[in-house]
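Notebook, student rotation project (T.W.).
Task set for the rotation: take a protein with a known small-molecule partner, predict the structure of the complex, and write up what can be learned from the model alone. Partner molecule chosen: adenosine-5'-triphosphate. Sequence and SMILES entered below by T.W., checked by me.
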Amino acid sequence: MSETPIFALQDVSFAYPSGHAVLHDVNFAFEPGQQIGLYGTNGSGKTTLFHIVMGLMAPQRGKVLFHGRPVRGEKEFQALRREVGMVLQNAEDQLFNPTVLDDVAFGPLNLGMSVDEARERSLATLKELGLDGFEDRLTHRLSGGEKKLVSLATILSMQPKVLLLDEPTNGLDPQTRERIIEILAALPTARIIISHDWDFLAQTTSRFMTIKDGRLVTDVPHLPHRHVHAHPLGDEPHHHHD
Ligand SMILES: Nc1ncnc2c1ncn2[C@@H]1O[C@H](COP(=O)(O)OP(=O)(O)OP(=O)(O)O)[C@@H](O)[C@H]1O
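Predicted structure of the complex:
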């Protein structure tokens, strides 16, 4: 018997106001403990899917469930966002405070922590990400990779139960990417990670899902290799039969 999903999408269809239909009858249940890599070609609707889960956009058909109940209003989505933290594809969209500490402490303060607790939590998170000493830096002056790391810190500092990461390794150098792998590999937190970086997904998730033509089409355990050279969901390798 499976546990109640943390969140689920039920018959979700979504089109942008331009008429561009992106998702078609998507059904998906995210169960506790799952660590999923989400793959799909550019423009296939991965980010859109995340935005619908978080309540940033409403589907024309179907619904989002949170712990088995339909999520209807902003108040209910706020409850969902306490458990599900999303790191946006574009760090610039996530950072809106003057300093790094303000940004990283924003979530914890919002969750009701005291200023001291929030500061302590934020400094610890920054340290974990190798960003000691960054707390007083001005966010708008950071490099692209640093912004990416700080945006991850703004979510990790809230210690969400589920992490939704939208292309977290984009623009990172190999060492920084490796650090993110180490951090995520050590975290037990359930997650969905959108990425085209197979090796990264192999090290930070345990299943693959693909989205194609607006439908979730694959859900397979993926290769446990540390270095994945082949496209695991691509063409079948040619088998030679005797
Ligand atoms: N605000 C919008 N208005 C109209 N169309 C949009 C809007 N945002 C996204 N789209 C279109 O919807 C489709 C899905 O976009 P989405 O960002 O979800 O794809 P994605 O799978 O995350 O892509 P990528 O891998 O390139 O980030 C794309 O064709 C995109 O051009």
